[in-house]
Specification:
The protein has 175 residues and is mainly α. It is 77% helix and 0% strand. The protein starts with a helix and ends in a 22-residue tail after the last helix.
Length: 175
């Protein structure tokens, strides 16, 4: 089972990690609603129970952002993430902090390009994008575990725990 999992680990990571984007969107909107609920409980509860039309209008941005981030996350992960993953493996840069940091940086760079093309972006879109990029990078690293691939690819050395102990005993003399 372990050999099978090690063989499919990276493809599974590329399929599952982009789901971090819509999950982050839902979590941030839930956190935002929780803050409103704690600050103004009556207003937050009235949004939920006033009318079905009001609830639908309030839920529409969440739905649209979730769909948009899902549609954007997969192509970016495949077009930018896959070559970047191969480059980082070649450079032996497999530490955990690199994956969320690069995910956040890639998302920020894409937001800057979109802001230049569109004439600006709301701050919450940049926040959602960068947090989603960091989540995608972290999820990818936790599934793919490139650090373990680097350890498995290296041959054992004399100081490695996996190598057998050398026998330094003197050969027995025969009379």
């Amino acid at each position: 089972m372990t050999a099978l999992w090690n063989a499919i680990r990276v493809p599974v990571a590329f399929l599952v990690a982009p789901l971090g984007a819509p999950i982050m969107v839902v979590l941030i909107f839930a956190f935002h609603f929780l803050v409103i609920l704690l600050a103004e409980p009556v207003a937050a509860v009235s949004v939920l129970f006033d009318s079905p039309a009001g609830t639908l209008v309030e839920a529409l941005p969440l739905f649209l952002f979730t769909i948009a981030f899902s549609l954007i996350a997969y192509p970016i992960t495949l077009v930018i993430g896959m070559p970047l993953y191969r480059i980082l493996l070649k450079l032996e840069m497999t530490e955990f902090w690199i994956a969320p940091g690069l995910g956040c940086g890639i998302a920020l760079a894409l937001c800057l390009v979109l802001a230049l093309l569109a004439g600006g972006l709301p701050a919450f879109v940049v926040l959602l994008s960068t947090l989603s990029g960091a989540a995608i990078g972290a999820i990818f690293w936790l599934i793919a575990r490139p650090d373990r691939q680097m350890q498995a690819a290296q041959p054992p050395t004399a100081t490695d725990d996996r190598s057998p102990e050398p026998n330094h005993a003197a050969p027995a003399s025969r009379p």
